[in-house]
Amino acid sequence: MTNLFNASGASIGRTPGSANFLVWWDTDTLRELLDSNHIDKYGTSSDTRLLTGSGVTSNNGTKSTPALSGDVLGDWREEVIWRTTDNAFLRIYTTTNVATNRFYTFLHDPQYRVALAWQNVAYNQPPHPSFFVGANMSPPPTPNITIVGGGENPGTQDTYQAENGLIGGGTVTETTNAGYMGSAYVNSSANGGYLEIQGVDGRGGGSKALSIRYALGVTSSRTGRLLVNGVAQNITFNPTGAWTAWSTLNVSVSLNNGSNVLRFESTGQDLGNIDQVTVQ
Question: Is residue 8 left, alpha or beta, with left meaning phi > 0 and alpha meaning psi from -120 to 50?
Fold first, then answer.
């Protein structure tokens, strides 16, 4: 068995069965091997076939590249586009595996968008994001998203990441449990902890629906307090079944036109792990 070696000459594993292309296909953050019309999982002793495209073929002779590969449909995992063997159609293959990690789509990353283009205008290579994705990776950066289209409040909702708020009283940001959006979630303390989100757009003011994305992996509900511009109401988080199972708590609130402050406080019980808050 031929081995791979690092720059110091130490063996770091066996040589993979192919070395043409790569694709993020299954549930983890390690990339799979993409070659000709098939996708394989690299393993310690051998590769495992995950997909063989029927009736499709690759391009560029021995380089065996697809027509295109990349995160073209969203989710962050990548799709593979091959041409049919009769050159009549293009087929898009997408994974059916449910991801255990939740990232923004790779197309939120400007470098990755350019990378999709360079596949078609230069020597074909897999697209790469501007940040590392793989084993023991750091939380990916939160993209700077700007809604365009004119008007005072374009779009139908505004979403605020909990990890970007102010925290205190023992409340912390965490990345322990998978499935969160953005770069982290917020885990409250049992008493006196708080998460404060400032600069919340009231979208013209009046009664609004507040959607709180959270996880609560215990068997009983937890109640805390939500203050909107200093006006308090109790809110109750119901169990979601696991700390990696995320649900939505919908709360009716009254917002001012312009900037608002939302503050979540623990009053004797931990709250659910809060991921993000959406104003609709």
Answer: alpha
